[in-house]
## 1
Amino acid sequence: MDMFDVIAVGGAKVDIFLDIHDTNQHFRLSKKTGELCIKSGDKVLVDKAHFMIGGNAANVAVGLARAGLKSVVVEEIGSDEFAQKIVNVLNKEGVSERLLKQVQGTSSFSVIINYKRERTIFVEHEEREHNFTFDNISTKWVYLTSLGHKWKSAYKQTLDFVKNSNIKLAFNPGTSQLDEGSEELLEVFKKADLIFVNKEEAGQLCGLKNSENKENQEFINKLLINLKNKGPKVVVITDGSNGSFLIDDQNNIIFRKAIDTATIEKTGAGDAFASGFLAGILSGKNYKEAMEWGSYNAASVISKIGAQQGLLTRQEIEKKLQNA
């Protein structure tokens, strides 16, 4: 039987990043509406293109492997050259492909436009059956995250594995889950030891907006308590430069300020925080220390292009903490 520290169930895909200089005459960003505009039919020169792998599960698995932990990705990918890129990178990073299943067809991918320190993401999810198997494997944690179409049966299978194996579950829902799955999400919440969401996702899950113009801390405390009441033992909410917030199993609320760093590109910040946090927990750290691990990992990722370039090793995280 193969033993892992974390099994990451969710997306593994290719990300194509297009860097657009702030002064590029073909692009215009409306400050009023936030709309990014280009002329229809225009031919646009980009400053640089980057061809990398991404996907929530792959990002977290790579982050854990960098921290010296044994991780594996559970996902179906295609049989094209994109799939080979995914396999090659995971192998290079020391992430097991034991549960990575290749099927006929193309792999999922995203195109990300980086312009004026903000990202615009075009995502294509190939429809998969998500016929996963957890045979002959053991783990300390399962990290369940975003899946595309037909995710509900995969989530049920994962929950069954967690319940039957008496292991811990961390959960980070994706867009499809937030939009479609209220009943299914509640089942995951009831079993989850830990959930990760950003402030906007938390607001959507709770049906709450900060319409009362409350102080940010007060509003997030309300979100933390609301989510905790749905069943998970611990809830973490990230809020970009405003930091991260946690409510533990004793209803204690902990705040960790964000690390001050120059932002190049924000893709993968949440995944970096999650992998750093889990690496801290698996290394015997308390929640406050784990939040520090997650914060440094996220800060490093947003200082580089892509979701994985900036992921830190355990030694790098510890050195940053020593120098703080």
Note: The first strand starts at residue 2 and ends at 9.
## 2
Amino acid sequence: MLLGGLVAHGHEGHEHPPAGKVVTSVQVTGNGQFTFETVPGFAAMPDGANVGPTHGGVAVDGAGNVYVSTEANHGVVKFSGEGKFVKSFGAGTKALHSLALVKEGDKEVLIGAAVSVQQVLKLDLDGKTLLTIPHKETGEIKGGFNGVTGVDVGPEGNIYVVCGYGSNLIHKFDASGKLLKSAGGRGKGDGQFTTCHGISVDHRGEKPLLLVSDRENRRLVHLDLDLNFVGVHTKHLRRPCAVSIRGDYVAVAELEGRVTIVGKNGDVVAFLGDQPDPKLRAKKQVPEGKLFDGLFTSPHGLSWDNDGNIIVQDWNVSGRVTKLKKR
């Protein structure tokens, strides 16, 4: 497949695996400097259990541990960098729709959007809740807090929250959870969103910006830290859910069966795990016989790790986590 002269590669040696055969061997995807191979057996749960519905996010700490949020009662699951189960945090962290790793001085914390209870939770790395938004000091939130889908923390400690399943507003809070400003709303124009699904702070330019995954408008959009529209970063994506930024590059989890790597100027440089069957894209109920290593179905959350590999979470009823190891 060609896009603007870019060749999007699938597996080495074949376009995709034979129908009905689950592949558990190493598969290769991507192109050029963004060529990766899968790691079979990564993120296996104890006793062969499922990780649980992976309608959440992925974060990686400074030691390389991987955190995956799920809708299962065990909540957030922690794996080693090699994909070995370490612990889970329990029902109090259930259904964190997004997950990000944040540095606070010499400490690291997790922050996530808990869509089912309409809250943002900040956790320590053992799963203890450090902050909940909204709380009694928040005051009235414009448009309500229904449908909260994504959150990140800016360089001054302010917290940015998107309500992509509700008002399509973006809220700015201070570090204590006090509401400072709201902006956005549903639409297709500048400063409007149709499912502002995810948000991440982008440090690649002269000053930090907010990079919003405007899912149903199929684009990534930049705002400044005071929620003013700056510009569209990338268009014509396949329903972007979340991003992870490393160096000059952004990895984009696209719900319609693909991870895309985007450069500093918004140009597409690589496709990973591109699902060839449109019927398997953006589907939660994909049977095991249709899940193949190296081909995604519904990427929902992802994170670069500390070595330039990518951990990807597919939206899947039983749970699916893939490590793409850089070649």
Note: Residues 42 and 83 are 5 Å apart (CA to CA).
## 3
Amino acid sequence: MKKILVIGSTGQIGTELSMRLRSIYGENNVVCGYYAPPYPEGFFEAGPTAYIDAQQINPIADTVRKYNIDTIYNLAAILSATAEKNPKLGWEVGVGGLMNCLDVAREYKCGLFTPSSIGAFGPDTPKDHTPQDTIQRPNTIYGITKVLGELVSDYYFKHWQVDTRSVRYPGLISNVALPGGGTTDYAVEIFYKAVKGEVFECPIQAGTFMDMMYMPDALDAAINLMEANPARLVHRNAFNITAMSFDPEMLYNEIKKYYPDFQMVYNIHPLKQHIADSWPNHLDDTCAREEWDWQSHYNLESMTKDMIDKLKRKLL
């Protein structure tokens, strides 16, 4: 049975990934590394936890030794729009934290998953059906850290056989954890406004397409990649994956099927719009499908229905 450490277990991905991993591998076999509140209800009672600042290597190494960890999910990151306001912190967490995880994984023979992002692409990248292997010249500190993360993870695999693996996540939509400063956050926030009966101010222009994914698919991607046969993996860091691509108007119109009186107005956020304009419209995830049988299960229609159902139970 695997022994897993999740760093950043209280974030947007980590909150749900930790629960999913514990349901698969057992509560006592998944250690949740935490750094700052808020913490999910019952967090400290649900299984082993450890205080971990990804910028410090010793707590990571101590936890790996204490619990005989063989797999690390490194989810610590400062998201795109937030990192632009504090690029030094974005770098220290995104790069410094990853280097700490890589060194620990090398020493203790751990597998390591560190998500990359569509932010790893830039304005010179082909916008439609973006290839797995293509130009990556991002213009955000977040994107720069992701490109470096992909390269250095491959380096540790090639030089020291550290089992590094990652995916380029699109925007993630969750009904559990609130977003944390990303460019695609509008696609979560809009649902909360709709269910509460409030007007939504959209920070992204109509016609701005971005890849998106519902969180259950994102969790499947991380776990299935880490369980994949390494002999099949031609690419490791990082695989394009996607589930759907839409612009704000498409999402708004889908939500209006459930809330006909729901209103959305545009209040463009210049920084978020600038970042969104530099990202692809839609990724080609053929390599992930061929090398480890990746497939998504939610599209815009099924995701919208499930988000509304879950948030109604949560908020009303």
Note: The domain at 4-170+214-240 is CATH 3.40.50.720 (Rossmann fold).
